[in-house]
Amino acid sequence: MIKVGIIGGAGYTAGELLRLLVNHPKVQISFVQSTSQAGKAVTSIHHDLVGSTNMEFVAEMPKGADVIFLCMGHGKSREFMEKTLVDSTTKVIDLSHDFRLKDKSIASDHRVFIYGLPELNKNAIKGANHIANPGCFATAIQLALLPAADIIQDDVHIHAITGATGAGQNPTATTHFSWRNNNVSHYKAFEHQHLGEIGESMVQAGKGFDHTINFLPIRGDFARGIFATAYFKSDLTAEEVKSKYQKFYKDAAFTHVVDHKVSLKEVVNTNKCVLNIEKIDGKILITSCIDNLLKGASGQAVQNMNLMFGLPEHTGIQLKSIAF
Ligand SMILES: NC(=O)c1ccc[n+]([C@@H]2O[C@H](COP(=O)([O-])OP(=O)(O)OC[C@H]3O[C@@H](n4cnc5c(N)ncnc54)[C@H](OP(=O)(O)O)[C@@H]3O)[C@@H](O)[C@H]2O)c1
């Protein structure tokens, strides 16, 4: 069994990881660390885990884990890696932004973090000891665009709408029910922080890709999921683009190119990404849907753990969508 520890255990991504790991056949959860909730039952925060775990949050990280997941907010993972003596035999999967960009991927103790998008870096992930798990918008958008990195001739335009869990557990003005319910708004137009990692992966996939990616993030009035559309001009037919995507994703465990018009509920509560490709008025339109907490965070983190430990990629993350 793989001995797993979670750091920053009271938040949304940590809760989602626990929901997966309590049912993972090859995992033993060794500890769940939480600064804010130390000494309390894990179920006092993650109520739905009643009957699944009797663990309590601990204040400090015990030694001996085979892998730890870092589930903390921006900047805290780098701080943790600087201040904590992590065993050299303990692998690390970080869910934050801290180590994702190439010039930020090395920790102060020289540990190198590999960008954990299996559809792009599967072999490197298999041999990695440290993973920077991709962002949620970044995952949906990269899966929509990477196979096209060498055929895009002009600017790319993206609109992506996200559920409120994307912003974490701390209630804010724009996650408050009274404001968010029956409401819609955009934010960080053309300057969302995930554009950096998307750009780096597009260059990796498309050798010399240098087009502008115009990204308009939108807040949706639902709890979870990302529905993203991306479009760009192309001389190729929809069938030619589709066959390129099918080839790119032929070994992908969770990313599927489908013929129907996709909608969010077919992926919510799963680790899947579904992609639909159309050509309309000279433009290729790609629609991409994921669950932000699963393929966009904790599900992808478990997928990376499976690859790092030589397990079949699906282990513990074959999940049922909500569908309706
Ligand atoms: N949410 C997403 O969809 C998503 C997707 C991809 C990546 N990420 C990234 O993953 C990291 C964690 O995101 P998150 O959504 O899990 O953030 P979150 O829900 O805001 O949790 C972040 C931290 O808040 C702390 N916390 C403090 N007081 C708390 C309380 N009363 N209840 C619960 N938690 C409390 C927890 O640490 P302690 O337990 O130590 O107090 C927790 O680790 C971030 O860097 C984020 O950017 C998030």
Notes on the protein architecture:
The chain is an alpha/beta fold and 324 residues long. The protein folds into two domains: 2-133 and 297-308, Rossmann fold, CATH 3.40.50; 136-290, 2-Layer Sandwich (Dihydrodipicolinate Reductase, domain 2). It has helices spanning 12-21, 76-83, 118-126, 136-145, 177-180, 195-206, 238-248, 294-308; strands at residues 2-7, 27-33, 57-58, 67-70, 91-94, 114-115, 130-132, 156-162, 185-186, 213-219, 226-233, 255-258, 273-280, 283-290. The longest helix has 15 residues, at 294-308. It is globular and about 60 Å long. The two termini are 35 Å apart. NADP nicotinamide-adenine-dinucleotide phosphate (NAP) binds next to helix 1 and helix 8. NADP nicotinamide-adenine-dinucleotide phosphate binds next to helix 1 and helix 8.
Poorly predicted segments:
none
Number of domains: 2
Name the helix and strand elements from N-terminus to C-terminus, one letter apiece. EHEEEHEEHEHEHEHEEHEEEH
**Largest beta-sheet characterization:** 7 strands, parallel
Which strand order do you get reading across the main beta sheet? Answer: 3-2-1-4-5-7-6
Number of distinct beta strands: 14
Share of residues in helices: 10-25%
The CATH topology assignment of the largest domain is: Dihydrodipicolinate Reductase, domain 2
Q: What form results from the Cα inertia axes?
A: globular
Mean model confidence by pLDDT: 97
Distance between the termini: 35 Å
Rg calc: 19 Å
> According to CATH, what is the class of the largest domain?
Alpha Beta
> How much of the sequence is in beta strands?
15-25%
